[in-house]
Amino acid sequence: MLKNKENRNLKVLIYVVCIILAIISIAPFYIMFINATRSTTEIQQHAIAFLPSGYMLNNLKILLGKSFNPAVGFGNSLIISIGSTALAVYFSSLTAYALVAYDWKLRQPFFSFIMCIMMIPAQVTTIGFYQMVYKIGMTNHLSMLILPAVASPTMVFFMRQYLQPTLSMEIVQSARIDGAREFMIFNRIVLPIMKPAIATQAIFSFVSSWNNLFTPLVLLTDQKKYTMPIMVSLLRGDIYKTEYGCVYLGLAMTVLPLVVVYLILSKYIIAGVALGGVKG
User: Which of 31, 38, 30, 35 is nearest to 55 (CA)?
Assistant: First the structure.
């Protein structure tokens, strides 16, 4: 009886902690969306509010009245994020499969090289990358923000670590005996096995690409190529007055796709965690 009571108290404590953590996580997003409906004066007088105001359309008019077009920035960010995420996930999974499924002479040195690349900060290579892009005349092309995602050392490492205990080589050998080619094996057998890992890395990759401000700011000078983070940063740079309601609306527009992507892919992550628990 006493043990059941202790378990019940522990459950209540866990639920309370989880609810508190959920509130702490959601509160900044809620306040941001609320501030998107408020005027600059209201935000300056009371930074935090829990009820929406009626200035959202006015903030939208101010946002649409800027020299840049938020819809274009939204579209550019979407193209870059989807393209870079698709390339990073597919080619990282393919590389991880090559490191796990094939026994070749330079496999371990190649993996060690990938580990070394992970230790190099991205900012170190920015100058050389910009010089290369400038010399080939591709500074205002969105493709230069998408194609580098093909090489993603961190994602390759994660995919390899996931694939090593998960992939059964007997299945691969059976497919080869049945006459399946290597790319068919990878696309039809290996990728479905890696769904939880792909969903997890797709979220991280999409968020990272969508929020990336530094690289687009270096490469893009044409306003028609600007991404949403660049446009939001320009909202804070108004000469005469910073419209905070407009800034919050821009931030809300920036965050919204990330929430949608997470909601779409979260079921695969939960399924992967549950599968891991069953295996354990």
Answer: 38
Does the pLDDT of residue 278 top 60, yes or no?
no
Q: H helices of 136-194, where? A: 143-146, 153-166, 169-177, 182-185, 191-193
Query: H/E element holding 210?
Result: helix 195-211
Asked whether the beta carbons of 245 and 40 are under 8 A apart, the reply is yes
Residue appearing with tokens 């009886």: 1
Are the CB atoms for 235 and 222 separated by under 8 Å?
Answer: no
Residue-level pLDDT at 280: 41
What secondary structure, in 3-state letters, does 29-82 show?
HHHHHHHCCCCHHHHHHCCCCCCCCCCHHHHHHHHHCCCCCHHHHHHHHHHHHH
For residue 262, the tally of other CB atoms under 10 A from its CB is 15
DSSP character at residue 190: I
pTM, entire model:
0.78
Query: What is residue 277's predicted lDDT score, i.e. its pLDDT?
Result: 40
- 45 class by beta-carbon count within 10 Å (0-12 exposed, 13-18 middle, 19+ buried): exposed
Q: Is residue 84's pLDDT more than 80?
A: yes
Give per-residue pLDDT as tens, 193-214: 888 888 888 888 888 888 888 8
Token pair of 158 as six digits? 């994660």
Q: Report the CATH fold assignment for 12-279.
A: MetI-like fold (1.10.3720)
